[in-house]
Amino acid sequence: MTGDGLPLFQFVDRIGLNFFALLTIGFALHAALGVVERDAFKGLRLHVLIAGAGLVLFVALRLAILIAQMGDGSNFFDTELLPLAWMGLGSSTLLVIVGVIGATSGVWFGSRIAAALGAIALGAGFGLTGHSQGLADPGLAPLMVATHVVIAGFWVAAPFSLYPSSTLDDASLLARVHRFSVFAIAAIPILIALGIWLAWILAGGIEKLFSTTYGLLLLAKLATGVIAMGLGAINKQFITAKIAAAPATGRMWLRTTLLLEATLFTAAIIAVSAATTIGGPSE
Ligand code: HEM
What we know:
Number of strands: 0
Shape: globular
Number of helices: 10
Helix content: over 70%
Bound molecules: protoporphyrin IX containing FE
Structural class: mainly alpha
Strand content: under 5%
């Protein structure tokens, strides 16, 4: 690959990294917080393993892309540049590896504490990279990015954990949706508020939000977040009642809203991946 293809490669890598990081965080938190009942952890094992393996792959690629960017744009394995690249991405990469070990071993061995610590380590890995680190005075911004990503992970894994599969009877499904909503009702408004605050800080004010590519990408993200929050409220208010009253119809409605949510989350992940690779504050 020549240097010209690197920005696109970096963008694709960031989509993969964000997608698998959010799923690994989400599956770990659904186990740690009891959204998924303990005797159903077996079903989560394969999910968290695939998500964790995907994340490690894309994090390794991120390091290789940085080496190529520092070098001639085509040598991804230049060992002489590795120490320099590690200075930039080393701590974040180590936190991701610790996080994946915590998340997968927590789900596999039924340790909610290990799963929770794994999710927190993965969130912290995001706080150590990204534009918040480029601020003249980062202050609380890196911690806010980490908290934002941990809540986003909890939310993005919902279409998987709440999917009305045939192995999940109506009572267990309703209990799971209820347990998820108990946390979501407080966490999701916090995610959106943190996102708006970060967008305002990183874009450099309201005017820049509406006049830069970076700002418009974040506004697109805000739109997907608000619509997805609306769908979540519909799930909680109407669909749970429908599942109790008419399970077949209720389950079909839930499948539909979860599919719509998954589509919106994919759009949000693509938007933030573009905002943190192709575009940047003031562009
Ligand atoms: C739909 C739910 C959402 C998901 C899945 C999501 C996901 C993410 C992820 C993964 C990051 C870390 C990116 C990185 O550091 O590489 C991030 C950062 C960020 N998010 Fe969200 N987010 C969501 C909603 C929102 C909302 C509603 C806003 C409000 C405008 C927002 C604004 C931001 C900002 C400003 C950053 C920092 C970007 C940077 O470092 O340049 N997010 N988000």
